[in-house]
Amino acid sequence: MTTLTAHIMDIAVAVLAFFIISCIIKGKLLAVQKLYLFSAICLLIWLIAINGMTITNSLGSLQVLDAITCSCSALMVVTILMTSITYTKNLMKIPRCYWLIYVLPVFTSLIVFTNPLHHLFYKHFSIYASEVRFGPLFILSGGQYYIYCILSVFIMMRYGFRNRHRRVFGQVSLYIGGLLAPLAVNVLVTLKIVYLSIAATPIAFLFTIVCHGIAVYYLNFLNIKPLALQNMVDNISEGYVILSADSCIIYSNAVFDDIFGASYQMSVNSYLNVIVDELEERKKNVIYNLLNFFDVCKQSIHAISYEQAVLGDKGKIYYSVELTPILQKYRLIGVIAMFRDVTSLKEEMKRKQQNLSRAMERERLISLGQMIGSISHNLKTPIMAISGDVKALDNLVKEYYDSIGDPEVTLEDHQEIAGEMKEWLGKIQECCSYMSDIITTVKGMATNLSTSSESEFTVEEALKRVQMFLKGKLVKNGCHLMIKDELPENTVIRGDVNNLVQVLNNLVDNACDAMEEHGGNIILTAVKEEKEVILSVRDSGPGISETVGRKLFRSMYTTKGIKGTGLGLYSSEEIVRGKFGGKMWFENNQEGGATFYAAIPMEGE
């Protein structure tokens, strides 16, 4: 070994040792960085062993040092192959089965160290190259070197051609370039085109290690995190496009290309303001909106979103478009636009709204039926009373006609008959007035059942209507409605009074059904707690089981069998939440039965 080569070796050992120490100091390493560090350590030991061979003449020491160089070269080359596999497969953790590729290098290393026992690697070892005779397994050691190097180059080249991305080409070029230097040196030496010292190969590998080290730690090329993030974004279901500050398309994923690529001429390196001039009129709206909101995003330096309708082959498709600025040192360098298909979401919301409207309408009709039943019950009594009064009047009229001309009938008798007729007419008038009040109240409520008009109303008004409309069912089930109005006088709620009446009717009606067998008191309470009116309906029925409780307030769930619709509590909860901004819940009573609550925010609180 020449003096120049020795100096190069010394410098290489010092630089490599410093490089390895600085890598370790950087802290937690990724899998690919750990592999790189191990290959660098192998090269360092290799160089130290070669330096040792230049300062000793002991045959035994030379054999050990030579075995170290052979082992380090084998382990280093297979580690470079493992690095290629880890990088191209984006592995954060290396599977155990991958470590099997180390079996052959470890086996050849053992053969070299135990050569004096079997002479399979060297038939005769000598410090003079002309006297060295190689064994049958030497070819295996040399062959694996070339195989692993060629495999590494092939894997990286295939990965680069498959991805066809500028970042990937840079990574692959740097990696392969660093690996070709030692490969070329070994080919020249093996073919005896040039004659070099044994230090030539590790020095060539020093170029590989430095090249890969710069890539890993300073250029961040071999760090798989950017590629992993890019692959993740490319595989998401939403389309996205990256725009430069001058509205040029820098990059777009496959989903975006399928939607807008060919049909809207939105390809990489094209400008939006140029594209829009070449599109047909019906498609220009998409580009105009994107340009307008792109300018807003640039000026505000904040993420913004809007909705875009696109006419497709199967009808309109709706996208939620979100534009996010890309900043570098507080300077905007571009915008990323994400296109999320929300067609299914809009259709689902529309279906839910339609179902809710149908449920509300059905519940209104049910309330109307209950109201008519209550009306018929409330009107039956005065009608029957009027019928009796008319019968009594008819008898008095006959009695009066018969008394005309009768000398025994005195003036006092005529006055008595007239007084009785007037009394019966008064009773008829009271019944008619009562029926008129009922009809007037019902007429107003029936009109409002099909409309929803918001206004201020008192809770007292709603409680009175509930008491009137459910009077018939309460009597039928043997129940008595007790109203405890503990609110301050003239407590006002903003909304539609008929909506609240509908909710309370549902709750009281359910309480009646729960107490159908034994009857009892139903307590309707209204209290004020902080800024809310709390309305509660308490019954003494069987209560609510845990299984049933989990399903309450859900559409089409009922405990009444064919007698129930499953819409009462569901629509009530929707009304309280949607119309009044409140909430509903229930609690089982310790002594039996259940209490349903509706909390409604007060107007102006």
UniProtKB/TrEMBL annotation:
Reaction catalyzed: ATP + protein L-histidine = ADP + protein N-phospho-L-histidine
Q: Which CDD domains match?
A: HATPase, HisKA
Question: Which protein, by its recorded name, is this?
Answer: histidine kinase
Q: Which Gene3D superfamilies match?
A: 1.10.287.130, Histidine kinase-like ATPase, C-terminal domain, PAS domain
Alphabetically sorted, this entry's keywords are: ATP-binding, Kinase, Membrane, Nucleotide-binding, Phosphoprotein, Transferase, Transmembrane, Transmembrane helix, Two-component regulatory system
Record lineage = Bacteria, Bacillati, Bacillota, Clostridia, Lachnospirales
- Transmembrane regions listed in the UniProt entry: 6-25, 37-56, 62-85, 97-117, 137-156, 168-189, 195-219
Q: Which Pfam families match?
A: HATPase_c, HisKA_7TM, PAS
State the organism of origin. Clostridium scindens (strain JCM 10418 / VPI 12708)
GO molecular function per UniProt: ATP binding; phosphorelay sensor kinase activity
Boundaries of each Histidine kinase domain copy?
Answer: 374-604
Q: What is its EC number?
A: 2.7.13.3
| PROSITE patterns assigned | HIS_KIN
Q: Does the keyword Membrane apply?
A: yes
Q: Which GO terms describe its biological process?
A: regulation of DNA-templated transcription
Tree of life domain? Bacteria
